[in-house]
């Protein structure tokens, strides 16, 4: 299996309060890969301002 991500996450700088999407596309696999996002070694949890999409994208809104 090729473990290379189709779309690598990149660093972004945005103004506080602006929505932003961090894109991530893991390699194709069966079953589909599950993507987890971390900040400072802490797992980011979905909540009123953060959501993870089935594609692996992370949305701040």
Automatic annotation (TrEMBL):
Listed Pfam families: Ig_3
Limits of the Ig-like domain: 3-61
Database matches in InterPro entries: Ig-like_dom (IPR007110), Ig-like_dom_sf (IPR036179), Ig-like_fold (IPR013783)
Protein's recorded name: Hemicentin-2-like isoform X1
Organism: Clarias magur
């Amino acid at each position: 299996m090729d473990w290379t991500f189709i779309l690598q996450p990149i660093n972004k700088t945005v103004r506080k309060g602006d929505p932003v999407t961090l894109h991530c596309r893991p390699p194709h696999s069966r079953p589909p890969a599950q993507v987890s996002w971390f900040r400072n070694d802490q797992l980011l949890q979905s909540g009123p301002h953060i959501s993870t999409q089935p594609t692996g994208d992370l949305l701040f809104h």
